[in-house]
Amino acid sequence: ISLLQMETLVSSQVTKVLPSIKTICVLGGSKLVASSQNIDIVSQLVRELGKQKINLLYGGTSLTFFGSLLLAGKGFDIEVKSVLPFHKTPSKVLKDSTSLMLSNSIYDCTMLMVNHSDAFIILPGGYETLMTMFTIASWADMKLHNKPIGLLNSHHIFNGFI
């Protein structure tokens, strides 16, 4: 995906439902190789969401690749919330997020993400990202929520799912 394609995706698709979207949960993991192309894609996403004053929610710590990039959203005067399971060590807690929610389990972490966001953007990640993606999609299929779920198909990673 090019930056132009990403800008078009964010500008044309997300803005169609913007009136109802105040917070987007961005899922992705540190398993993604931190290539310059991936950094550019995620930075563009954060800039586009920030321009629209859409708050960010994500699961992560200051040590994750996406954790540091999502903090860029603070430059747009938006709220950046972090959710993580309680078992993560205190030294890994993201100190720069505007709020931090701790949960007892990965399941509870996913519940917090669903309860505190209006839509989801799934970025490439590892097994935990895939597990959360399938959980959120399953809950939507069971009509437990009706929030939009988007895949950022960087490097065609999600081709098998779409």
- The count of strands amounts to 6
Helix content: 25-40%
Strand order of the largest sheet: 4-3-2-1-5-6
- CATH first level: Alpha Beta
Which topology does CATH recognise? Answer: Rossmann fold
Radius of gyration: 15 Å
Mean pLDDT, all residues: 75
Spell the H/E element sequence: HEHEHEEHEHE
Strand content: 15-25%
Q: Give me the CATH architecture, please.
A: 3-Layer(aba) Sandwich
- The secondary structure category is alpha/beta
What coarse outline follows from CA principal-axis ratios? globular
- Count of folded domains: 1
Please describe the biggest sheet, giving its number of strands, its sense, and whether it closes into a barrel: 6 strands, parallel
End-to-end span in angstroms? 15 Å
Parts with pLDDT < 50 across at least 5 consecutive residues: 1-8
Number of helix segments? Answer: 5
Q: Can you walk through the features of this model?
A:
The chain is 36% helix and 17% strand. The protein has 162 residues and is α/β, with parallel strands linked by helices. The radius of gyration is 15 Å and the shape is globular. It starts with a helix and ends in an 11-residue tail after the last strand. Residues 1-8 have low confidence and may be disordered. Its EC number is 3.2.2.n1. Keywords: Cytokinin biosynthesis. This is cytokinin riboside 5'-monophosphate phosphoribohydrolase.
